[in-house]
Write a structure and sequence with these properties.
The chain contains 18 helices and 14 strands. It is α/β, with parallel strands linked by helices and 486 residues long. The chain folds into two domains: 218 residues, Rossmann fold, CATH 3.40.50.300; 232 residues, Phosphoglycerate mutase-like (Rossmann fold). Helix 3 packs across helix 9 and helix 13 crosses helix 14. The chain is elongated and about 80 Å long. The chain binds 6-O-phosphono-beta-D-fructofuranose. The site of 6-O-phosphono-beta-D-fructofuranose has 11 residues, from helix 16.
Amino acid sequence: MAPTSTICDVRNRKDSDSDEDELKYLSIPTKPVTKRRFGPLVVIFVGLPGRGKTVLAHKLERYLTWTNKVAKVFSVSSYRRKHIESYDSHNLFRIDNLEAVEIRQLSIHEAQEDATKWLNSNGEIAIIDGPHTTQAIRQNAYDHFCKESGFQVLFVECICDDEELLENNEKEMLQFSQDYCQMSAEKASIDFHYKIEHYKEQYESMDAKIESDFSFIKVFNGGQNMLVHHLSGPLSREVLHFISCFKPTQKTYYFSRHGESEFNTLGKIGGDTNLSARGRLYAAALARYFNETNIDGLHVWTSEKKRTKQTAQDINAAKEHISALNELDAGVCEELSYEEMQEQYPQEFAWRDQDKLRYRYPWGESYIDIMNRLKPVLTELECENNLLVISHQAVLRCILGYFLNKRLDELPYINVPLHTIIKLTTYGYKYKMEVIKLNVDCVDTYRKQPQNCSVTRMAEDALKTVPAHFDNMNPWIRSGHLIQQH
Ligand code: F6P
């Protein structure tokens, strides 16, 4: 085993050691290069074009950001585009095109420099999206990030020979890559195949014998199989976890809050009440929508609360009830209206308005807490398609914030109205959102952040943005009064 310090080794040496041995001892470095397990991580993508690297890189960035890490993608081709404004043809990728080789090397170098600066300021995980197809390029990257800067490095190689996946990847590439936006589809496809051939000429897949010191993950056919080599450290394990769950297929998700509940009509939060009469109408309309649309393999996840189960009950699909989808636990404020909260806990109410994301109800939860319990749900969502999630206002804000790449502080104010389906469909590494309003009346439960969030504010200021609600349940039957703040 390599000694770790000069003092220790000199002390431990035997009297019979020769001068030559002494010299050997003294030349032992006092500061051995140890691999860091904590601290900044650089994830370096490897693989031929059209292997799904870019989609995975961006989804990884989104997931890590959502888990409150500071992550950023550095795309080598964006640096290349700064030097070569308009893409002409695959000739740019020939190995004998020395001028272009130089530009591509420069682009890698610039991406590495920027990533290093960013990690040295406040970054935690830099994701370098590029082909890194040769051992020499990877060794250089490793030396740059690990040996010179002391960052952890994890290579992720995407390998794919599944025809269907390759076809899908090519379609996405041609649709979304800036290189091809000015070319006809036919010309672009031919050009893309030539480009792959040029890369194949130089491609060396990662080799555990030659690159034995490197940490790497090989992802075969979009995660069907994986090989993990020398992985260490919590950030690398988090990356592995996400990659092992992610499936790069076209996906459609549907999200809905439960139908209006009895508590919603009264403006009360939390609890476990039944649907109101209007909520039951929404449940029927929702079931009609999904039963008539006949979505292939549709299944439904709900929370464990009565109001989400009742909302799902008439939909013809397999259902699962998941406690992680339960609404924010408001602790001592459960079953109170915002007005009652202001009356009984004015300071808590103000603190929540000051930082709704981080504020934790006494004996209850914060948005950050919900996000933590939602992590396994999200990674499972990444493997699903044609799934309807029926949950609650705060929980759906967190899930939608993830898919729509919202800043964390924006999450608690995303508007997710009752009686509305939100449909998300993959679009490259992003999602297209459609809002489908089913025509059933309901109260509004959206409370904007008030202007005055001070603990010394007047009740009137605290309640200014409280949405209207009724003073008794099923008001349209028993003619309840609408309570409106001014
Ligand atoms: O009002 C409905 C509700 O789902 C409550 O049960 C929950 O406490 C609240 O929304 C969460 O919304 P906000 O964070 O805006 O108070």
